[in-house]
Amino acid sequence: MATSSLHRLSSQINRIPSILTRSSATTTAAAKVADRIVKLSAIDPDGQKREIVGLSGHTLLKALTNNGLIDPASHRLEEIDACSAECEVNIAQEWLEKLPPRSYDEEYVLKRNSRARVLNKHSRLGCQVVLTKDLQGMVVAVPEPKPWDIPFPFSWASFEFISAVLIQLRLVFSFDC
Predict the structure, then answer these.
(1) Residues 137, 97: contact at Cβ < 8 Å?
(2) Looking at the DSSP assignment, which residues form a beta bridge with residue 130?
(3) If you placed Cys at 80, which of 30, 90, 105, 112 could pair as Cys (CB 3.0 to 4.6 Å)?
(4) How far apart are CA 147 and CA 131, in angstroms?
């Protein structure tokens, strides 16, 4: 009996260093995340200034979606090839020099799909701006979403109405070949 108690006690002592090691690893990981935090100011479409938080190495789009300023469903991919500028933002003048210049692809997407009729130097795609600690305090403005980005409340009545219209159109435009 004394031997089994001694064995249990020694196994518990052997586990204590691993518990301490794990808790310090957790503290170290938490400190690393805290070191990556980038605080930004975002002006929403209503003109309200909001403080948002992102992580260095992540995109501005991710910070804006995580803080509820851009609907994540409106920009499903963070690839420039499939982008149609739903994540377009305007960067304050004093922060433009701290960002790398727009890539050819970003420029092309903005010229074709910008919310503004004339592309201005403040326009950037949130999916192409990678946050760094140098951007701490950056001010961005989020324009109003495009009409097709605004979620449409679904109801069966609207579905039935659209179905009826489509059936009528099919009857009107049916051709015999």
Answers:
(1) no
(2) 59
(3) 105
(4) 28
